[in-house]
Task: inverse folding
């Protein structure tokens, strides 16, 4: 399977520290060595930058450079891959991206969907992962049922319905962002932490690196990080409940929901 | 305006040498310092990698790394930007990418389109350049008139019609690829060279670098490079006629066409 990481902040913030920890798990401290990807939305223009590679993040010069790069964003999203469905190749690396009514959307998945994911129009996969098929299915479903101008609450509800459906067919944890919000669904495993003043020190679990957030923030900064596993050793990360979803805007969790569909997943032996 | 570069080859080939020359023009030997982008299709999976930055390529550590990276592809495409329409920001950096019926398409433009480009559905711009608007217009036009399974000749004809229309409204040189073919349209300025055995040495016009292609190729290799300006000093590049387009597959020019519409552009004072 894979590991997920995302950031939402109320001021442009780089994800270097967390991304550095995540990349260590891509072949060094973890077995997720089949590819990696990093997406960030430019805070000025909303433009999307996605860098993906079909190699181990822990040993990639490009990933190392991105872990040094001061890529400040309000929304960033990263993924390291351990292939379950689909071969090890660039087309199967997350995050996947599509345009939806003039917006760039990115999607990353951790899990294994055993059920059939219906194909549709206009969104169809390039690679052959269950993950990209799920993303296309979500977009086709939104396209059928939703106005391009749908409000945030309606969107959250629609995404929750899609996630509950997919979580009923296997293991489904996902992150989605369009640069204006971050959606996170934890079917089986996802952790969250919101950092705000007074900021303290944090030490990576996977590397000998400590950062003093108080030295690089102002007292008004709010940053929420969502990650498959806690990335630091001296902070308290909250595990999401099974089937819990979050909508994060400007670093704050503005909505959360626990999916009854996902709670039912215990009845399905394929789901754990 | 901007400069364009693309490669098509019959065996996975890296574009390092040409890209290195192009990036020098992004702020060092040329004034195209408002952004750069590099797209390449993974020859194994067809997956697309696009790296863009809103800074001068000549001084970018990321561009320097990509110029060293052995990124072998059958189709690669690059762009350096000097802004004419649209601010200097990531969302306005070429190449632009969209999915069309399960294929990744990339597009880069050199020019300045003065006429109004109609907006449409389902493709709409993220940034505010004439270039991205033109790309969306082309895709919406293809979507209206063409089957997803259209043959290569019909596609070439449709793209030529779109290019001729856009060239009639200003300056329009463009590159498009879906990883299976490269389309090039030279409204005002584009050069092409096809390299095949016997391979010789080539020296960059913008950097003190010489490569001996005979040492890095086999006798069956065929590589076509399309570029706004010739990138080497000791090879013969052919300038495209005004309004000429090329379709390049596996390194070979399989079709060329001179657009009557573009030839008429001399009557339009906006077009030069």
Result:
């Amino acid at each position: 399977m894979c590991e997920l990481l995302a950031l939402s902040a109320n001021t442009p913030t780089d994800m270097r520290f967390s991304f550095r920890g995540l990349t260590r798990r891509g072949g060094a401290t973890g077995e997720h060595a089949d590819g990696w990807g990093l997406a960030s939305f430019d805070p000025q223009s909303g433009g999307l930058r996605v860098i993906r590679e079909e190699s181990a993040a822990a040993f990639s010069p490009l990933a190392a450079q991105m872990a040094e790069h001061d890529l400040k964003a309000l929304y960033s999203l990263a993924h390291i891959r351990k292939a379950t469905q689909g071969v090890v190749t660039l087309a199967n690396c997350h995050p996947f991206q599509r345009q939806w009514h003039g917006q760039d959307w990115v999607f990353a998945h951790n899990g294994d969907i055993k059920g059939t994911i219906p194909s549709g129009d206009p969104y169809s996969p390039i690679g052959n992962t269950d993950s990209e098929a799920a993303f296309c299915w979500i977009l086709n479903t939104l396209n059928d049922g939703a106005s391009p101008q749908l409000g945030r609450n309606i969107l959250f509800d629609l995404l929750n319905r899609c996630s509950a459906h997919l979580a009923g067919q296997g293991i489904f944890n996902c992150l989605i962002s369009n640069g204006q919000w971050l959606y996170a669904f934890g079917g089986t495993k996802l952790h969250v932490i919101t950092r705000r003043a007074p900021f303290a020190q944090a030490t990576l679990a996977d590397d000998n690196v400590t950062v003093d957030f108080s030295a690089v923030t102002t007292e008004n900064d709010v940053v929420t990080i969502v990650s498959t596993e806690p990335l630091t050793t001296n902070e308290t990360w909250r595990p999401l409940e099974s089937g819990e979803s979050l909508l994060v805007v400007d670093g704050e969790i503005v909505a959360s929901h626990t999916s009854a569909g996902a709670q039912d997943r215990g009845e399905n032996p394929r789901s754990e």
About this structure: Chain B is about 20% helix and 35% strand. Residues 261-272 of chain B have pLDDT under 50 and may be disordered. The radius of gyration of chain B is 17 Å. The first helix of chain B runs from residue 16 to 24.
